[in-house]
Amino acid sequence: MSESKDKIHKEDEQWRKELTAEQYEVCRQKGTERAFTGQYWDCHEQGVYRCACCGNELFSSDTKFDSGTGWPSFYAPVAEGNVETETDNSFFMRRTEALCSKCDAHLGHVFDDGPAPTHLRYCINSASLKLDKK
Ligand code: FE
Questions:
Q1: How far is the CA of 121 from the centre of ligand 1 (A)?
Q2: pLDDT higher at 6 or 44
Q3: Which residues have their alpha-adjacent CB atom under 5 A from ion ligand 1?
């Protein structure tokens, strides 16, 4: 993970106060919301999805697609560098974790079965997002 001066760092207790229980569980504890239960998996509104923790721009509705998984899915982040990835070996699987580059919020995972042009699928928890409508 890159360390820059722009990083937002808050104590665990502070995040717990600022976030809803679900946001805290997903973003700070690397939880996963149940499929088809989140706010955005079936959302077709235009806008920019920001980090629920820090407001960093993460994904544009232009790259959102229906993956059938029950989680909001995007084929690219809004800009390279806004979403960081890390290897995640938890649960006996080798996956790629997606994190907010500013506050290290856990967003979800990245898979390589997405549509063109990137063929990536950013499988993201609604709880980690906040849609800024156009
Ligand atoms: Fe963030």
A1: 19
A2: 44
A3: 51, 53-54, 56, 100, 102-103, 105
- How confident is residue 6, by pLDDT bands cut at 50, 70 and 90? confident
Residue 105: how many CA atoms within 13 Å on its side-chain side? 33
Q: 34: closest CA among 73, 70, 72, 64?
A: 70
Distance 92 CA to ligand 1 centre (A): 27
What are 24-46's pLDDT values in tens digits?
Answer: 999 999 999 999 999 999 999 99
pLDDT category of residue 4 using cuts at 50, 70 and 90: low
Count Cβ neighbours within 10 Å for each residue of 40-64 and write b for 16 or more, e otherwise: bbebeeebbbbbbbbebbbbbbebb
Distance from the CA of 116 to the center of ligand 1, in angstroms?
27
How many C-beta atoms lie closer than 10 Å to residue 16's C-beta? 14
Structure tokens at 53: 């923790």
Residues with catalytic function? 123
Domains of the chain, earliest start first: 12-133 (2.170.150.20)
Closest CA to 127 of 37, 60, 8, 64: 37
